[in-house]
Design goal:
The structure is a homodimer of 634-residue chains. With 634 residues, chain A is an alpha/beta fold. The first copy, chain A, has three domains: 2-294, Carbon-nitrogen hydrolase (Nitrilase/N-carbamoyl-D-aminoacid amidohydrolase, 4-Layer Sandwich), CATH 3.60.110; 316-515, 3-Layer(aba) Sandwich (Rossmann fold), CATH 3.40.50.620; 518-592 and 611-634, no CATH class. In chain A, the strands form five sheets. In chain A, strands 1, 2, 3, 4, 5, 6 and 15 form a seven-stranded mixed beta sheet that branches. A six-stranded mixed beta sheet of chain A has the order 7-8-9-10-13-14. In chain A, strands 18-17-16-21 form a four-stranded parallel beta sheet, with helices on both faces. In chain A, helix 8 (296-314) packs across helix 14 (470-484) and helix 9 (328-341) packs across helix 14. Chain A starts with a strand and ends with a helix. The model of chain A has no long low-confidence stretch (mean pLDDT 96). At the A-B interface, helix 2, helix 4, helix 10, strand 18 and helix 11 of A face helix 2, helix 4, helix 10, strand 18 and helix 11 of B. Strand 19 of chain A pairs antiparallel with strand 18 of chain B, so a sheet runs across the interface.
């Protein structure tokens, strides 16, 4: 029996001091509980998503220094932890000092080594460089080291031998992506399994939550344990980390799989807790337990609640201002933030103009009352009128001709003036005086096509809902009412009303007029542009349309395309309208958007690299289009 | 004699259609001029900085299709060009289809191959993944292919044999970074040189301009030609490309080096032109020419002018609105944009409050007159007063207690209200009515520490000057007056006045009060935080301070530290103040900042990855600090 402590804890990115403090206290607890080994996550000391902080020599030295403190604490306890490992005498390909993403095994004050490796630590073999991951920018991989030193990967990838008094343990050491090798030409787990006797695999990870990932990980890792007949321990970090533009929650969910691939221990998601597990290497003595399957809306709410709460703590924000319109997005934001900070720390602001209906004004008020928040009504009409008048009546002098002229404010420009007046004038001003920040309530559908005003409703310190499609916002509203508040906190009428910006008479909700986005179809169309692993473009959409398989490919309800677009021309006009926005003006807006909390497999920001290059239509698309249009005229 | 046409042209990123059209017309010209070979840049067909557009199957097919058109055009002319190359049957490490950054050599309708390679194109060996480069995210390198196929790199890296009627030519094919191998464990040029007879090296590149790079490239490439006694042809693209947050100019500057490393042909920077050069492989018959050394301020102005001009064209912006304060940054922006669009398309807006001096108001007016721009004075005081009153006098109702309360607007909050009123209310409103965008005039010093207001002066469609330190803005002002306009277009008083935001009585310029940033020192301190290849942190700064070498390390004038900070305590307070801002609030602001035009070796944005993690001080820094403070008390 080996007693293993799973050191799942909230890693604070960029804070070796705090992380070391936490690890030392968990180490003390593990010793007290007579554990043989304590396992901490990948990059437990520095944190993982640090931008280019890896280029600060002083920071790297500090990580080494704190790593040394952990090593010294390993008397009578084997401590496994992730840290950046330095070779100060070598260079990375960028000319900066050599850095490895490394797996350290400390025992009785010393690091255990593979005698074939030049270093007393194990180096990550597979370094992800897709999605939000940037490993190759900073860390030198085992594969590169193998080429540089001409030492075969098989020699560099050997188990670490741990000599416990009762037995000798061969540990197969893996770092996160090393366990996700399907698309690489090398599979570390197989190299280890085939070349050496392994008693135990340990995968230390720093793996962000995204929707559906845990279910997949359980399938993949369970299969690895089973096919190698070797127990596998997965330890992941909790907390939040960010890439600037995108904020990730780390759910922990550390898990132990036995030799038949069954789960025998499991840390609750997002919980910081030392879980102790006894592993019997000969026979699977520890009984399996059942890991709950991930439910979409439950896990989305969990991630949102945890992510926003931790982010507010990190930026020392204790109060929040939310503009509420009576619509669904702001209502969901209000319900979420109120649950996190308490109603006494939330100020809801309704900012009516002449275009806001009594219906939505009443719904805002109702929401504030239901949530017991602070509430203020700050109308915008006077300043909006003043602004339009000022722009139209202040003369422009040309110093070429000496002549004077005046500008005219279009109705479209006037809509944006309203949106900016709300956010940049009122919300920002109120937030500064209230001592907090104001939220951006945009959803993912709006964010996709830039259906928002820059410096207006697109502003805020965080866009917590911007990785949720509109249909997910509705699901969340239901979930908040039914499961979290267990009462109709978000008025049903807010859920039922047509979504509208109410910026002009054309968007009157009482007449059923609202957004130009037809969410039941466009949510799915937009998703195909950006979330599909092989991203759809107008060419794909048209091919699917022609083949009659579009709704199936998009995943939306059947019949919608015919309903919304009676003719091919209408279908194509709609497609190009949104494609032009998605790959045009919306990019300019996203560049200046607030940070987004990631939920899906792909959020806007660091995992959706984009250039302001304008929309493109392929030669094949143009041909398809003219063919289809010619056909439809027949 | 081989006649080679250098196809330096303006690659439009994400537009295979337009790029192919341009290449076909240059091919026709090359044939007319009886060239043997025409050489186009790396990624000539798709463009290089495309974000994740590489994940669109339809786009990749389109690149292949257009590449085919170029191959077909190679009758009686060898065409060398860069394109993405596909292997539809293989996968990248992210599971998506296999993509290579490839060098194509087409002759008489066919691709020339290295018989040892599985593909009829040459694959980039070294893929940069530092600075703004993202190659490893999308492209599979020759090194990975070598491992996957077990074909030695030496076999994969062979010259392409071109059979011209008059002679056979062995071409050593290089893609951009392949020629910058100092920090890699493999040097493609040496592998080629040592393993095979090479008649000619051709390096096709897509290499952005940054300050000082051309001088360095001339040293490095000249040495390569000389040490291998082989002519080297470097062809680079012109145009602009962007990573969303950062905009890069590509200056072309294609160059031919002879066997002694001398330059024998050279394309002017930023010029799209087919340059023909005769190369004598046996004897260096073509006489060397002199390439002008790069002058800093000249090349900065050139890059700014070119970059802004092309960006305006790309986003179809023909008119620009600029808020002018009478200060240096907005004056330089006005002079730059006026040169690009003509004064008839520029609207300068002065937005005085009660804090703006007659001095600066007069300077704004003087600037508009000098430039012959359109000019408007739009005061902000009334709405600022209204906003403060509205925030203070509108009651907040608490729905917990039912009580009402009121907010108070602090003087700091009132400063930001002014800044937002100018940008989000007036400039944005005027720009929409004028039919253009408004500029962000921030410099790099302000951007470093977030000395700006979000949704206020930090807003705009482009921050053209945000990669210039304040001292460079002054240099540019001088250069604009003396060399570009050849008259005092920017009033000398604007250059001489103390820089100030004029947002309160404490910032009265006529009393010599202004910004808290002491530019002659802080410009250089901030630069050490972000531009130094090994980035400085408070620990380094304090070590240098203690050793008395700080000014030397930073590169600022000697004596400044003692002048500004008589005591160690003052020095440390100042250091921590700016470090806290740089790694704290300024990151939140930069996340929502406009795109920045890159000039320096490191601009904010895509080449300065950062996470909103808050400031950090290492254990060693804390020790140093307490030691120094204790000492200073003795």
């Amino acid at each position: 029996m080996i007693k293993i402590a799973l050191g799942q804890f909230e890693v604070q990115p960029g804070r070796p001091d705090l992380n070391t403090e936490k690890m030392l206290s968990m180490i003390a607890e593990a010793k007290e509980k007579r554990a043989d080994i304590v396992v901490f996550p990948e990059m437990a000391i520095p944190g993982y998503l640090l931008g280019d902080m890896w280029e600060q020599r002083a920071f790297l030295e500090d990580c080494e220094y704190h790593g040394e403190l952990i090593i010294q604490a390993s008397i009578n306890l084997c401590i496994i932890f992730g840290n950046v490992a330095m070779d100060w005498n070598k260079r990375n390909n960028d000319g900066r000092v050599r850095k490895y993403n490394a797996f350290f095994t400390a025992h009785n004050g010393k690091l255990l080594c593979n005698p074939k490796s030049p270093y007393p630590f194990v180096i990550k073999t597979l370094q992800p460089n897709y999605r939000e991951f940037d490993d190759t920018r900073h860390f030198y991989s085992l594969q590169k080291l193998s080429r540089e030193t001409s030492i075969a990967i098989e020699s560099l990838l050997q188990p670490i031998q741990l000599n416990l008094s009762k037995q000798i343990l061969n540990i197969g050491c893996l770092l996160c992506e090393d366990g996700w090798s399907d698309d690489y030409s090398i599979a570390p787990i197989e190299v280890l399994h085939h070349s050496h006797p392994i008693d135990l695999f340990i995968n230390i990870s720093s793996s962000p939550y995204t929707l559906g990932k845990n279910n997949k990980r359980n399938r993949v890792f369970s299969k690895q344990a089973q096919s190698t007949s070797t127990p596998l321990i997965y330890v992941n970090t909790t907390g939040i980390q960010n890439n600037g533009k995108t904020l990730y929650t780390f759910d922990g969910s550390s898990t132990v799989y036995n030799t038949t691939g069954d789960v025998i221990a499991y840390c609750e998601p997002y919980k910081e807790k030392l879980v102790i597990v006894d592993i019997d290497l000969e026979k699977n003595a520890t009984p399996p337990i059942k890991v709950p399957e991930e439910n979409d809306i439950v896990s989305i709410y969990h991630a949102l609640h945890y992510g926003v709460k931790k982010f507010l703590r990190n930026i020392h924000m204790k109060k929040v201002v939310i503009g509420v319109s009576g619509g669904i997005d702001s209502a969901v934001a209000a319900a979420l933030y109120t649950k996190i900070l308490g109603p006494e720390n939330i100020l809801l602001v309704n900012m009516p103009s002449i275009y806001n209906s009594k219906t939505t004004k009443d719904l805002s008020y109702q929401l504030a009352k239901n949530l017991k928040c602070n509430y203020i009504i700050a109308p915008i009409q006077e300043v909006v009128d003043y602004t339009i008048k000022q722009i139209q009546e202040t003369p422009i002098t040309s110093y070429i001709t000496g002549e004077q002229s005046n500008l005219t404010v279009s109705s479209f420009a006037a809509e944006n003036i309203q949106a900016r007046d709300r956010s940049a004038r009122i919300l920002a001003g109120i937030a500064a005086s209230y001592g907090g920040g104001f939220t951006c309530n945009a959803n993912k559908s709006e964010t996709t096509v830039g259906y928002s005003t820059l410096y207006g409703d697109q502003s805020g310190f965080l866009a917590a809902l911007a990785d949720l499609w509109k249909y997910q916002v509705y699901e969340l509203a239901d979930y908040l009412n039914k499961e979290i508040y267990k009462q109709e906190i978000i008025p049903q009428a807010t859920i039922d009303i047509v979504p509208s910006a109410e910026l002009s008479h054309n968007q009157a909700v009482d007449e059923g007029n609202g957004d130009p986005i037809k969410y039941p179809y466009h949510d799915y169309l937009f998703r195909s542009f950006m979330e599909h692993w092989n991203r759809a473009t107008p060419q794909d959409i048209l091919e699917w349309y022609q083949a009659g398989i579009l709704e199936d490919k998009l995943g939306c309800d059947p019949g919608l395309v015919a309903k919304y677009f009676p003719t091919t021309q209408e279908f194509i006009t709609d497609l190009e309208r949104w494609w032009n926005l998605y790959s045009g003006m919306a990019i300019a807006k996203r560049i200046q958007a607030p940070p987004i909390l990631a939920i899906s497999r792909r959020a806007y920001g660091f995992d959706h690299r984009e250039a302001q290059n304008g929309p493109y239509y392929t030669a094949k698309y143009k041909k398809l289009k003219s063919g289809l249009l010619a056909e439809s005229l027949v």
